[in-house]
């Protein structure tokens, strides 16, 4: 299977590294230093107390790329329009671009460019940290689930490709519950780790931090219930803390963004909870406060005391 990973940051690089063991994988990312390093030295991945280098092609554009059956979209939300343009150029007419992005709204933005028949939803709990150009660390081997639509055949083929590459995966006909389940977990982890400057595990090990996780998650659950979403989490707070423990050494994607002064995905994670809460009449003051704090953190990056 020919696969393009559009967005070779931490997550995309980890997935691309593993899939390249069995499939023709190309990484597409605008970061030239990262792309050049991969092309010259290979992609280095640290995982399971070992480190390996794998050779696979990387590029910054769709120029001269052959059509692919599947594209995995792993960019940050702000880069979705760019990813949609790349996917529109390289995904075959009967192929599918699966978004594995955080938050809500990315599939709809992709579909506006590619059409609903070429866009699929996926949910992943893989933990990954980008250590340096060309070097990534897997911090959690969580499962990835693909929607049965728009192509059941391709969904199973991609899930099989993941499993053959030592990445747990499956297919679901009820992705809405999984999308919201991941959104709720991200709501409790990402912003707080970014603000506290801690790896995921600290949220589950420090009572004061755990209290904040509970406040964020409980608001998100109330919004999901009001929206009529069955989230599939028997105890959302406990399961969020379990994810934090399972990815204890991982730096969340939002923490990584804040540390390098990049825009975060606050608007599609906690911000999505706030917007849905407003639409449904569910108060979300704590998530609104987290949004305000992250937005202020982004705005004051040049002034930060070190």
From TrEMBL:
Residues in Ketopantoate reductase N-terminal domain copies: 3-149
Record's keyword annotation contains Signal: yes
Catalysed transformations (reactions): (R)-pantoate + NADP(+) = 2-dehydropantoate + NADPH + H(+)
GO molecular function: 2-dehydropantoate 2-reductase activity; NADP binding
GO BP, sorted A to Z: pantothenate biosynthetic process
Keywords attached to this entry: NADP, Oxidoreductase, Pantothenate biosynthesis, Signal
Residues in the signal sequence: 1-20
InterPro entries documented for this protein: 6-PGluconate_DH-like_C_sf, 6PGD_dom2, ApbA, Ketopantoate_reductase, KPA_reductase, KPR_N, NAD(P)-bd_dom_sf
Annotated EC: 1.1.1.169
Any one GO cellular component localisation term in the record: cytoplasm
Biological role stated in the UniProt entry: Catalyzes the NADPH-dependent reduction of ketopantoate into pantoic acid.
Family: Belongs to the ketopantoate reductase family.
Protein name: 2-dehydropantoate 2-reductase
Species of the source: Chloroflexus aurantiacus (strain ATCC 29366 / DSM 635 / J-10-fl)
């Amino acid at each position: 299977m020919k696969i393009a990973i559009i967005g070779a940051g931490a997550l995309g690089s980890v997935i691309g590294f593993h899939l390249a063991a069995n499939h023709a994988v190309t990484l597409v990312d605008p970061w030239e230093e990262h792309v050049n390093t991969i092309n010259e030295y290979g992609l280095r991945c640290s995982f399971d107390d070992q480190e390996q280098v794998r050779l696979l092609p990387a590029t910054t554009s769709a120029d001269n790329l052959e059509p692919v059956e599947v594209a995995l979209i792993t960019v940050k939300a702000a880069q979705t329009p760019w990813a949609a343009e790349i996917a529109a150029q390289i995904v075959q007419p009967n192929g599918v671009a699966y978004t594995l992005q955080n938050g809500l709204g990315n599939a709809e933005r992709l579909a506006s460019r590619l059409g609903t028949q070429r866009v699929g939803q996926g949910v992943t709990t893989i933990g990954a940290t980008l250590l340096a150009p060309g070097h990534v660390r897997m911090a959690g081997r969580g499962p990835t689930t693909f929607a049965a639509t728009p192509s059941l055949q391709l969904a199973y083929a991609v899930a099989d490709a993941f499993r053959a590459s030592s990445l747990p995966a499956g297919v679901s006909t009820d992705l809405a519950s999984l999308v919201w389940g991941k959104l709720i977990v991200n709501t409790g982890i990402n912003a707080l780790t970014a603000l506290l400057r801690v790896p995921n595990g600290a949220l589950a090990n420090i009572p004061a931090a755990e209290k904040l996780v509970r406040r964020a998650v409980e608001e998100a659950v109330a919004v999901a219930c009001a929206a009529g979403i069955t989230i599939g989490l028997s105890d959302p707070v406990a399961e969020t803390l379990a994810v934090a423990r399972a990815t204890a050494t991982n730096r969340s994607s939002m923490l990584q963004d804040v540390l390098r002064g990049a825009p975060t995905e606050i608007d599609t994670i906690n911000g999505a909870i706030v917007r849905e809460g407003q639409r449904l009449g569910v108060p979300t003051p704590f998530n609104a406060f987290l949004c305000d704090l992250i937005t202020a953190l982004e705005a004051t990056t040049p002034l930060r005391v070190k």
